[in-house]
Amino acid sequence: MPTPFEHAMHQLARAASLASFSQDFLERVAHPNRQIRVSIPVKMDDGSLKVYEGYRVQFNNARGPYKGGIRYHQETDIEEVKALAFWMALKCAVVNIPMGGGKGGVNVDPKGLSKRELEALSRGWMRALVDVVGPQKDVPAPDVNTTPEIMAWMADEFGKATGDTSGAVITGKPLEAGGSEGRGTATAQGGFYVFEALRERLGLPASCRVAIHGFGNAGEHAADIWSKAGRKVVAVSDSKACVRNDDGLDVVALARHKKATGSVGGFVGATTLAPEEVLYVPCDLLIPAALENQIRADNVARIQAKAILELANGPTTPEADDALFARGVPVVPDILANSGGVTVSTFEWEQNLKGEHWSEADVFEKLKAIMVREADGIFVRAQSLQSDLRRAAFVVALERIESAMV
Ligand code: GLU
User: Hey, which of 59, 119, 375, 386 has its CA 20 to 30 A from 331?
Assistant: First the structure.
């Protein structure tokens, strides 16, 4: 299995072959500006000291401060964070926001920590990296397993160390700590705007049946948004189980069940299956909303969806991409489909810098305009390049980064 960074470099090479970028630019854009690895000591509740490894990769800042989330996961490492940072640079360029690409992480299973330990770890991450982040340098945000509360602890720690209490150093904060309206649902909401803008051109019916892989921030909100829009959510999974009901799941009751039991599995009114089965149920739209490398050469033939919208980062390997393209199954790529999150993050940063607070209606109106405009542009570009949407999105993003670097 290629690493996520190899996977990203493969995507880069394939997209680059469709346009005339300079060799120097392609060489430069494939290398991160800076990769930082830190030790974060945490005093555990039992009195022992544990040292965690934390990361920040600052990939490219040609278009603005580095921007991207911080992931807490037991399998994350600097290679994965590097790939995610590269994708962030492209993602910010796709939506044309004045940000570069970065990403952070800690190798930890946060589910095994008490709240006090989690706070100590999060404050420790910020203390270790306080010199390299900042509103005009590098602006982190949430990612897998990191929450608004964690962002608030980090913002507070940055304020104590630097005196800058504007909050603009980090986004995805709770509303009471300078967060933006709409940030919590922005990734899924942005994906929905992109999907609606492209739905007819992708050949999907209005009464589209949806399967969602992952029930974290992106997946749970996607289930809610698609079902509120009158679409049937026929299957949902988390790391432990998949639940399927071809007549449509009651996603509000499902979210309650997950909160009470810790998993979607065993939900009344649905059949419980193994988690990966969600990828193979008959549906119109499959939404991967968990981790990388889920749709691969070895399982792509089993996918029955008519289209895929990537709310996760890097869920489809290049081989699976080719197989789907050959079968005529469109894939709306991560750097477009999930860019609503970083777009509203950038609105939050802007509000913090100006001391403003925008209404939710304002936030979503601005978000929709950006998502629809960029989705249209990428669709048209894919047609003129005769390529899939991913390569078109890469070409558009790379052109914007190249002109900023020149
Ligand atoms: N972690 C999210 C992403 O992968 C959001 C990043 C941000 O808001 O900066 O796009």
Answer: 59
> Are the folds of 32-163 and 186-337 the same?
yes
Structurally, what CATH architecture does the domain formed by 186-337 represent? 3-Layer(aba) Sandwich (3.40)
Kindly give the distance from the C-alpha atom of residue 84 to the centroid of ligand 1, in angstroms, as a whole number: 9
Q: What is the CATH number assigned to the segment(s) 32-163?
A: 3.40.50.10860
Q: How far is the CA of 103 from the centre of ligand 1 (A)?
A: 8
The atom of ligand 1 lying closest to the CA of 87 is 4
Domain ranges of the chain: 32-163, 186-337
pLDDT in tens, 319-355: 999 999 999 999 999 999 999 999 999 999 999 999 9
Report the nearest atom of ligand 1 relative to the CA of 143.
Answer: 1
Helices (H), 130-231: 148-162, 186-198, 217-228
Asked if 103 is an active-site residue, the reply is yes
Q: How far is the CA of 39 from the centre of ligand 1 (A)?
A: 23
Residue of 76, 342, 350, 367 with the most ligand 1 atoms within 8 Å of its CB, for mutation: 342
Q: Is the pTM of this model over 0.85?
A: yes
Residue pLDDT, tens place only, 92-103: 999 999 999 999
DSSP assignment of 347-389 equals: HHHHHHHHT----HHHHHHHHHHHHHHHHHHHHHHHHHHT--H
